[in-house]
Amino acid sequence: MYKLLIVDDEKMVREGLQDIIEYLKVPQIGPLLTARDGADALEVIAREEPPIVLTDLNMPGMGGLEMLRTLRERHQRHKIIVISGYDDFHLVKESFKLGVRDYLLKPVHSGDLAEVLNKTVHELQQEQQQDLEGHSEQKLALLEKASRGMNQVLHTAPDDHDAIQAVLGELGCRFPHPVTAAAIVSVSQPAPHEPSTGGNWEQLLLAADWEQPHLSLLPFYNRHNDLVLWLNYNDQLYDTGGIHKLLQPFLADGSAAVAVGAAVHCAPGAVQPAAAGATESGSRTSGLAFAYQSALDTLQYKLISSRQSLILYEDTLNKEDNRIKPEHLRTLVELIDMGRREQVLPLIQHYFNEEALKSSSMNSIRHNYDIILHTIGWLPGQKRDLSTFERSEALRLYLKSCILHMIEARESLVHSGDVVEIAKTYVQEQLLNGINMAFIANYCNMSYNYFSKMFKDSTGVNFQDYVTMKRMEYARQALSGLNVKIHTVSEQLGYSNPKNFSRVFKSYFGVSPKEYQKHSR
Question: Can you give the pLDDT at residue 237?
Answer without folding.
Answer: 76
